[in-house]
Amino acid sequence: MASAAEEDADGMSGQSTQGAVERQLEKIIVAIHGVGNQRRSDTIRTVAHRFGALNAPPLPVMPLGFFSVASSGEVYVSQLDVREDHPLWNVGFAEVYWADVPRDVVTKGDTLEESKAWGQTIVGRAQALYRGQVSQTACQVSDADFNMTASVTEEIVEAIAVMENLSWVAGKAGLFKFDLAPLLTDYIGDVQLVAEFRSYRKEIVDRFHDVLSQIVEHFRKRYPNYPHDPEIHVIAHSEGTVISFLAMLDALSSMPDSANNYGWIQCVRGFMTIGSPIDKHILLWPKLWPDNNLETADFEDWRPDKPVLLKDANKDTRICLPKPIKWRNYYDFGDPIGFQLDTTRRYLREQRCGAFQFGFKDDFGFSRYPFPGKAHTDYWSDTNLFRHFVDSVVLPDPLSKTKESDVKPPKNRPLMSGISLSIPYVLCVFLHLAAVYIMFKATTAFLVQGQWSTVDVFRTVVSLSVLLCSVTVASRLPRLVRRSSLRWLLLAAVIFFCGVVICLLTLPAKVSDFLAGPFLNLIWVTSTFGAYSGRAFLVLIAVIIPVTCWLLPRRPRVGRRVMVGSGTAVIALATLCAYPAHSTSAPPLWPLVLAALMFLYLWWLGILAFDLSFIWHRYIRNSVALDTLRDWRERRDTTPRTLSFRQPKDW
After folding, report:
1. Would the pTM count as exceeding 0.90?
2. How far is Cα 218 from Cα 9, in angstroms, rounded to an integer?
3. What band does 447 get if pLDDT is binned at 50, 70 and 90?
4. Which CATH number fits domain 27-104+197-413: 3.40.50.1820, 3.30.1370.20, 3.90.550.10, 3.30.470.10?
5. How far apart are CA 517 and CA 532, in angstroms?
6. Which segments of 507-555 does DSSP mark as H helices, in order?
7. Of the candidates 246, 235, 238, which has an alpha carbon nearest to the alpha carbon of residue 204?
8. Which UniProt keywords are given for this protein, alphabetically ordered (predicted)?
9. Domain boundaries for CATH 3.40.50.1820 within the chain
10. What are the distances in angstroms from CA 608 to CA 43, 116, 474, 519, 550?
11. Is 80 exceeded by the pLDDT of residue 491?
């Protein structure tokens, strides 16, 4: 069992419980957490556990008290209790904790802007970027497009809250448990605090400076005869990557002295970012980032094994890094927050900053986690992810002939990409299927229709569910894309046509006649469609909804209301036509009304699920939104994305 080493007055543990052997600390892992209401010391405990799991036998999970400090301002470097020949013998662990800052702000409730209102400002900022950077003589994006984006943004916030109810139901059913809404609302709140409020941002970044400065100071006091400073490796997650990168740029662009204590930057050797949104911050908040004093000497002659020098106005060296900081970025394609850092590399290139070894090959994307959204937190349970950073940066094998760049990165897990892509749409189909089943069973019970076999019921539910899904897709696409693009019209038409064909081929004729029975009494229906009146009338109703949605103004909420309203009108009309004609003693109406309400509610959830899934895959997972902002930053107008895969850029 590993146990806590004795804590010294200088905030470092350095003595093994297995004997009075002085442990020379050489490397210090500093972890900084991301968004959300994090527990103190939980992040560094997770990191230490991942490091301890890399060797056999793996070390046990330590209690939080092993790493705990009394307050946010104190620093304690923990060392795991291992044998002297263990790779972690000379490695310490510390944490930068900042979750108390946004928690206090949220508790007061008088600072942060409401999520939907703040989302509108993000769209406005993007619109200002477009107008300021792109020539308006032949612009492709109109004000109507931005208005639609604002509406979609507002609805995403609402839809996430609704989908959280489904996550709760799934958790109770034992399928999976994940708090989707808290993750994204915490992200929105923390990003707003860091990006928009200078005083709070400074408080958090200064805390990072203070922790690393104290680590270096304590190290020098404890090991006065050691010829080197500690090697510091920063592991950052989510919004913590933004904070740590801002702090590093502050340190690189400033003069280390007794006033600011930025000299710790010269001890940093590695930087691991997981689920990082740095690119989004550079594109949307460019004024956050330094635009001078980052140029390194001999930038064009940069080499990974060459010292990095930053000089002042007198050409005197103010900062000297023994080598560029080895930066490795990791992101899962199912992560809605983290992604590839193309723009970050471009920013460093523009500033002629060679302080980081961070090229195209140091940016690792993969599909390893099944659930979209939850992937943002699944990094912490991925031992192989940490193995790559440890083997290539922190503890490379000195006897190995394998180059650091040749260490195998985390691979895609089999079928995980397809699973991650399909889960949201499977949920959407399931909601449509449940809606149709509930409504169909209630209708047959209401009209005393019980002579159909199980096969007939199965074929009916599946065929009508396919038709309803095709109606949803064909109706929602115009609310989520630019209708000027012919390919989306063709895609909607093809999907709807396939749904209609499947329904016509699989739906039993007696069932279609039964369902359309209340309308078949109308003379114009039978005279128009003849023997195929039942199926034809169902298809006609299905056609009207997407066509209407294509013609309506491009406001997502309007389209959804029209869809659900149309369904309500059809159900109400059918009920009124059928109710007095099929029974002398009128059957109870309330079960049918209740089933109709459940049908409409589940269909509405299915529409929301499709909207979120499409927006997620189209604009976030495939990086359409980020690439658009990148184009505007480079003063280029938006170009439609083809069917080819996105090609990352190496600056």
Report:
1. no
2. 9
3. low
4. 3.40.50.1820
5. 12
6. 509-515, 517-520, 523-529, 533-551
7. 246
8. Membrane, Transmembrane, Transmembrane helix
9. 27-104+197-413
10. 34, 17, 14, 30, 18
11. yes
